[in-house]
Amino acid sequence: MIQRFDRSDRRILKYPAVHPCEGITPATLLGSLITLSQTICNHHSKPLATQRKNARETIRQIGILLLFFQEIRDLGLNLPSSIVLCFSELHFSFQKIQFLLEDCTREGARVWMLMKAHMVATQFRVSIRSVATALDVLPLGLLDVSHEVRELVEMVANQARKAKLELDPDDESAMNSVILIMNQFENTFEPSPSVIKQVLDHLDIKSWIDCQNEIRFLDEEMGLECVDGNEREIPLLSSLIGFMSYCRGVLFEDSDIGNIDDKSEGRRSTEMLNCLNLEDFRCPISLELMTDPVTVSTGQTYDRVSIQKWLKAGNLLCPKTGEVLATTELVPNSALRKLIHQLCADHGVSMAKSKSKNRDISRTIIPGSPVAAEAIRFLCIFLAGRLHYGTDDQRYKAAYEVRILGKSNIFNRSCLIESGTIPPLLTLLTSMNPSLQENAIAALLKLSKHPNGQKIVVHNGGLSIIVTVLKDGLKLEARQIAAATIFYLSSVYKYRILIGRIPEAIPALVELIKDGTSYGKKNALVAIFALLLYPRNHQIVHAAGIVPILVDLLASSHETDLIADALAVLATLADRVDESTSLQNASFLALVIRILQSSSMSRGGKEYCVSILLSLCNNCGKDVVAFLAKDSSFMASLYSMLTDGTAHASKKARSLIRIIHKFHETSSSHMLTKEGPNFHEHRVRL
């Protein structure tokens, strides 16, 4: 049997070739050799940015051997064991050659293959020499092939033995130019565009999308290196990402990026609307997903275990801001904890296993190399200039670049903020160009995840401008992104107060729950949830008419994550006596019980159901308790929460069970008291 050799999961520059098993039939081996040879020859029509001469010579030699294999097949010749052994060695070598050619023609890997040109040239040389070795011991005399084919095989063996597959001088020159460019970046000297263009021309990188493909590949490769625990290549990968990001933003600013938008509209819409992701909720100290987030006196949030270790070590400064902590008290951030748990459920991530996940965000806090740092700084300065003084097209492109750079890289966000990109982005929010406004708010969303970005947004009057986009954005997408931006800004206590004071803010979020897509509704819900952490916002949220809208959403939606978010907001509102009365009706109670008993509802959603019902029992009294006590199946749901729910949910379920039991006991005692005299009187009469 022959293992599949077109392995799609293969890492670049890794060659997992395997020898055919000993029991393979000659016909199967020959057929596989023909298939492999044809696959290798097909690379002749594919573009090669590097290793052109080596690849051409290798393909030519394999093409000749393909004729040899096809003639053996067509003649139906029997293959002696000695021939089978040689063919097995050729099969092994051909697999490596196929892998090499796949790497040389791989989309997005051009600059990486250039920087590894010495190693790749060596691999070509070793592979062809192994072919020569197999052909040297091949007993051609045992095969009755034509004289012409026999001469061709002997010629290939001779040429393979003497082949000088060395590094192409043009590749070496381009590689040295990249090294020069990176040295200039490291020394804070902006390289000459003409030198960069020569390298890009050699690699046939001619557009914005070509640069983007290179960056995407390099970033994925760096992620795989981190997973493997091998950080030897990280500095070079980071440097190349910085270099290609600079090229994308500066050299190709006039390149059309419309094709990117059109081709990936579905993916971009998801990225725009599902703005909240797990990577945003990693502890700044451990860089792991926070399982028990707590807030310190500076307003920053950390995982409890990590900040406790920090404080026990004698550190009295906030790790993120460097400010002196006024107190070492840790305030549980229950809202964020619930949100993280819900997001984990949505993404299918186990909280227990989250620490073993790829730490993509961890390597972005500091630059991977000095080259990357300076390249990004030069790029950010350029983008800030374009946002301030560029044409509308240049501003559109610059806003889009900011949006991409800040998407999942903390250092990039910091550089963009320091370069002064936020004030002009806020100005662009008033643009009458829908796409420009959308890119500007999306860029601000990324920068508002950074504490300094939040401060600058607020200092420049950004809250009211963002709320205007939330209310009257030119595109629904812009409104939905504005809601996510409000959520991040609401992570700071004093900003919750300021946002709540803007008359249009909360009503606009409530309106988005009605009009938005599922992701837009979710962004609005989590923003309201965050704003409710400031008590005085409760009345504003309630006055905006959110309760009937959320009740309608619970009754009509089939999306469990959206229902859970709505329940979270209702649970917060129900906790206050003055707001719980609006939920005191039989239809709502029946709806919550139905959701609690639904098999499809998440564990977090069921916990919110129990929270709502417990609050209503405590705040609204016996009428609610009496309604719940009538439903016998409801008690079964509560008992299942004792075993299946979280510790917090179990505690609430236990309290609710006690309340209902007490109601039954009180009702029974009251009936006995009421019926007692009649009973005795009846006995006397008897």
UniProtKB/TrEMBL annotation:
One of its GO terms (biological process) is protein ubiquitination. ARM repeats lie at residues 420-462, 545-574. SMART domains: ARM (SM00185), Ubox (SM00504). It comes from the Eukaryota. Its EC number is 2.3.2.27. Keywords: Repeat, Transferase, Ubl conjugation pathway. It is an enzyme of class 2 (transferase). Residues 276-350 form the U-box domain. Pathway: Protein modification; protein ubiquitination. SUPFAM superfamilies: ARM repeat, RING/U-box. It catalyses: S-ubiquitinyl-[E2 ubiquitin-conjugating enzyme]-L-cysteine + [acceptor protein]-L-lysine = [E2 ubiquitin-conjugating enzyme]-L-cysteine + N(6)-ubiquitinyl-[acceptor protein]-L-lysine. This is RING-type E3 ubiquitin transferase. It comes from Escallonia herrerae.
